[in-house]
Design goal:
With 397 residues, the protein is α/β, with parallel strands linked by helices. It is 45% helix and 14% strand. It has two domains: 129 residues, Alpha-Beta Complex (Aspartate Aminotransferase, domain 1), CATH 3.90.1150.10; 234 residues, Type I PLP-dependent aspartate aminotransferase-like (Major domain) (Aspartate Aminotransferase, domain 2, 3-Layer(aba) Sandwich), CATH 3.40.640.10. The strands form four sheets. It has a seven-stranded mixed β-sheet, sandwiched between helices. Helix 2 packs antiparallel against helix 12 and helix 14 packs across helix 15. The structure holds (2S)-2-hydroxybutanedioic acid. The site of (2S)-2-hydroxybutanedioic acid has 6 residues, from loops. (2S)-2-hydroxybutanedioic acid binds next to loops.
């Protein structure tokens, strides 16, 4: 049976991660996969996570099944992180389910939406995270794109986006990135969120919000401002969140799928369908990561420690954005890279040609995704000069 299969290409992001690992170049720089790195190029376990793990080791009493929705204490805290003091919490209109990673949340959310409307189309930004389209298609949704990023002007195509979304009908879904747009780093302003939310109300489409980088852009509340604007206006939405980046729990696979209903009773019905989707895919999520986050977010001391560690990452990323622009200028490159400083989160499109990306990889061991998406957190004070000099040489051709 297997002989009918044809080999498939490796994933554009994860394949690059493997290629980087195997590269013997001592000067190599990984600007590929979206993993935060510190100044030394490491991705250490957060101190608050270590403390929560020690607590868990001492206090865990059972390895019995956790249940379809996962850790309820975790789910409650994730809801609070997403909505803050928003009235949705008091109105009891949101139901959160722990999932295996943000990707698991997207899959559960997509299959839930497919159950709501078997013929649904999901509209995603052009471009979007490389895995979104494959994931939604595998969930049985039709996928279409709306214009988003202007590769020439290195900004948003907001008017084009609005005109495409004005064609989206009731029963369809629009995927929006809450913050730190992956891959472009270009986020909607609050004013633009209001316009998209008004359109969602007018046309009746359902927003699905992917929030994988809460805390990496401007702060925990600021990064959720767009989704809270949406929550002010629409009756129903789906939110997919991740703890990979902001808690550094990449390999624990921890995320959440939150459904918002027009009232508590309809949220209960939606939740029952979400749980049935979960049962049909993986039955129940693993517990370790959720137990860690539950412990951190229920402890005043550990929460303060987490927020400080998260702020440190955010400040480092924003500092690197400034440094990259300065150093590329100082290396004598005439091309304008100032857009890097106007963007948010770990990613920006560097905006160089495919052969230049290949040359950076092959001749200098500098890895970025083939679209020219770079993870700015891979830059450090010790490799920035090598990076700028290599780019200068490659751009001179
Ligand atoms: C990325 O965009 O690089 C990360 O979200 C990792 C992944 O799974 O693609």
């Amino acid at each position: 049976m297997f002989q009918t299969l044809k080999p498939l290409p490796t994933d554009p992001i994860l394949g690059l991660m493997a290629a980087f690992k195997n590269d013997p170049n001592p000067k190599k720089i990984d600007l590929g996969v979206g993993v935060y790195k510190d100044e030394a190029g490491n991705t250490p376990v957060l101190k608050c996570v270590k403390k929560a793990e020690a607590f868990r080791l001492a206090n865990e009493t059972s390895k019995s099944y956790i249940g379809l929705a996962g850790d309820e204490g975790y789910n409650q805290k994730i809801k609070e992180l997403l909505f803050g003091a928003h009235e949705i919490i008091a109105q009891n209109r949101a139901r959160t389910t722990q999932t295996p990673g943000g990707t698991g949340a997207l899959r559960v959310g997509a299959e839930f939406l497919k159950r709501c409307n078997n013929a649904a189309t999901i509209w995603v930004s052009a471009p979007t995270w490389a895995n979104h389209i494959a994931l939604f298609e595998a969930s049985g949704l039709n996928v279409k794109e709306y214009p988003y990023y202007d590769y020439d002007k290195r900004g948003l195509l907001f008017d084009d986006m609005m005109s495409a979304l004005s064609q989206v009908k009731s029963g369809d879904i629009v995927l929006l990135h809450a913050c730190c747009h992956n891959p472009s780093g270009m986020d909607l302003t609050q004013e633009q969120w209001h316009k998209v939310a008004d359109l969602a109300v007018e046309n009746g489409f359902t927003p699905m919000i992917d929030i994988a980088y809460q805390g990496f852009g401007s702060g925990l509340d600021d990064d959720a401002a767009g989704l809270r604007i949406m929550a002010d206006k629409v009756d129903e939405m789906v939110i997919c969140s991740s703890c990979s980046k902001n808690f550094g729990l990449y390999r624990e696979r921890l995320g959440a799928c939150t459904v918002v209903g027009k009232d508590s009773a309809s949220a209960d019905i939606a939740y029952s369908v979400v749980l049935s989707v979960v049962r049909g895919i993986y039955s129940m999520p693993p517990h370790h990561g959720a137990a860690i986050v539950n412990t951190i977010l229920h402890s005043v001391e550990l929460r303060a420690m987490w927020e400080a560690e998260l702020a440190q990452k955010r400040d480092r990323i924003n500092g690197l954005r400034k440094l990259i622009v300065e150093k590329l200028g100082a290396a004598g490159i005439s091309q304008d890279f100032s857009f890097i400083q106007r963007q948010h989160g770990m990613f920006s499109f560097f905006g160089i040609a495919g052969e230049q990306i290949e040359q950076l990889k092959n001749d200098y061991g500098i890895y970025m995704v083939g679209s020219s998406r770079m993870n700015v957190a891979g830059i450090s004070n010790s490799n920035i000069d090598y990076f700028a000099a290599s780019v200068a040489t490659v751009l001179k051709g």
